[in-house]
Structures are given as structure tokens and as C-alpha cells.
Amino acid sequence: MDHPRDLSRRAALASLAGAALAGTAAFPASATGPRRTVRFATFNASLNRGTQGALVTDLSAADNVQARNAAETIQRVDPDVLLINEFDYDADGTAARLFRRNYLAMSQNGARPVHYRYHYTGPVNTGVASGVDFDGRGGAVTTPGSDAYGQDAFGYGWFPGQYGMLVLSKYPIATRAVRTFQRFLWKDMPDNLLPKDYYSDEAEAVFRLSSKSHWDVPVRIGHETVHFLVSHPTPPTFDGVEDRNGRRNHDEIRLWADYIGGRRRCSYLYDDKGVRGGLRPGARFVIAGDQNADPYDGDSYGDAIRQLLDHPAVNLPATPPSSAGGVEAARLQGGANTAHTGNPAYDTADFSDTAPGNLRVDYVIPSKGLTPVSNGVFWPTSDDPLYRLVGSGWPVPTSDHRLVWQDVRLG
Questions:
Q1: Using CA atoms, how far apart are residues 158 and 146, in angstroms rounded to an integer?
Q2: Against a cut of 0.85, is the pTM above it?
Q3: In Å, how far are 269, 296, 339 from 323, measured between CA atoms?
Q4: Phi-psi region of 300 (alpha: psi -120 to 50; beta: other; left: phi over 0)
């Protein structure tokens, strides 16, 4: 499963500095054959911009440095199926098309180009005006482009589609079978954690659970289907004593726990087409995304991520994805990292040294019926030539998150 809770930070630094991945310049290739191995990955690439249309502008030419770094990171790991979090959504899919053509299909610093024939993207709740005064600060703000607007949107964002999601795949996606849960209402989850006496009755009546969206994206691999369950729950911070974001993060994670939990647990769910229920028992799946929840550290509500890590339907690898770079960063940066109880080799995000420190928040979790094999976190150490893609803090050359990958064997 995971490391013991009482493993000290100092012990983790000492024992895993050598055992964690020593370098990330090369990765074992995924295999084919009767027992096919497929590499699933998640990457919060920070390909979000401050104004609507700015990402399309940046990707229209092949010279945006941050986009090139993100593309090179993906090329170095070469996932077969990939979720990108924080990729601004546009209804025409222009940004997705430009990123694939101008960046992923072009060699970045000698890395081999990667071609994704299939992709899926869709609308998200971030930056979509609710028409309701969610934060109780003097009426609903419906004009995009400000923090006040973001606070009253269904998911925080300055314009519709900010912080969106993109799935890329080398295998066919059953697009017509995709299920989305963008409009599922928080109040309709039994025993939900909606903060009492914070939101108005009007707000509770329309408040959507997903801060972006939850997608079940069926991927056809040979004669088999693996459901790629992707999301990006809100950070459990930026709120008050009511802990509205922490509670929402918990229940966003719970949606997948219920979705894979059998008919009795998932019967309340309905997707955006009105179809009820969750995943059929025995279906194979991989849960992926920036869950904004660490098993031991940070501000999560009620051990939120344990709802997935301890779920009877998942099949975790013997050792979580890890890196030597995470160990080195925690040691060199110090600060909040020195008080963490979590294993720094498993960290996936380089956050502020003062608070909350580096955390494990990005996950690729396979189901029973899939055999987890190799995995890793793309976090090179400072003596690795690819360290330039992650850096040592601010300014961030690519993203404050690291790409996480997990190979699974089918057959």
C-alpha cells in the first residue's frame, strides 16, 4: 500500500535518497504482445492562461518556452494514455490541436516526438457563471475577468474553460460512450459535506460538485476497454473556518470512490445525459488526476485521498510512483517539508517551502484486473541534464507539478 504513518521525514530522506529513481533521462518503454503493457500518466502542466484565448495564441507558434518544456516532459516519459490538467478549454478544440501539432509532434531538445491520434476534451465548470452570489459578497458577479467573478462561478476561474482538462491517447477513445458529471449537484450526494449555514438556499440548489468535471473516458486497448476516470478536485485551501473547499475536495474524490463501489454506492449518481449509476462491477479502470490531496500532509479534509487508496476495487503497486528529485528538493528546501510525515520520494508537487511544502497530490491508480508494473515521478535531481525542466522553485520553468506515470499489464 503506502509507507507507515510513523516513518519520520528524516528517516525517509536517508533511506530513500538512494532507493528512489536515480535519474529520469530514460524510461523503460511500454511493451506489446499477448500481455500488453500500457503507460498511463497524469500531468498538471500549468497550461492555463490569465485571459480567454491566450493559450491558443501562445500555441499558435512553436516557440512558447513553457509549452515546449511541457511537451518535452511528455516526450521524455512517452505515456500511451495521458491526462493533462490545467489546459484551458476552448469549444473548437483549437488549443488541443495546436499543442499536438506544434509541440508534441515536434522534437523538443532532441526528444523523440510523440503522436496522439486520439484525444478528448470537453467543457468544465471553472469560470462558468452561476448567476448566484456564492460567496455572499454583495450579489452575483457575472462579468468575467476578476477574482469576484471566479468566486461566484461554478468552479473558480476568471473565464469559462480556465484550468480545463485534456485526455490524449495512442489508443482509440470510445467518444460516444464518454460519461461526464459536470452538472451533478453537490446536494444530491447522500451524506454530503456541504458546509452548513454557509451557502444560501439559492446557492445550494444549483451548486455543482465538480470544480472542473469528472470524466469516464473509455479507452479501447486491443479487444479490451479500460475506463480512464479523470478529474481535478479543488484545492482544500483558500477558504475559511467553514472549510468549504476542503469539504468539496473530499466529496469530489468521493464521487469516484462511489462510482467504482458497486450498485448500492453509486445508484444516486447521474451523468450529464441523465444516465444513472456508476461503473459496472468488474470493469477495468485507471483513476488519474491532480487530486489536491496528500495521504499524510497538507490541508485535506478527513483523509480524503484514502477513499481511493484504500478502496477494495483498486490494485495499487507495491511501491507508489517515486523520484530521487523529490527527496533532494525536500532536503534542500527545508521549511514546511521538515515537519512532514509523508515520504518525500512520493511527492509530486513543488509547493511553497513555508506552507504547505511539497506534497503527493497527483495520482495514477489502477483497478483490480490490471497488473501494476513500472512507475515513476518525473522529478530529476539537480545533477541530471533534464533538471532544467523542473527547476528549484520559483520561477517555475514548466509547472509546480510533476508528471506521474504507471505502467499496467493487460491480458
A1: 6
A2: yes
A3: 37, 18, 20
A4: beta
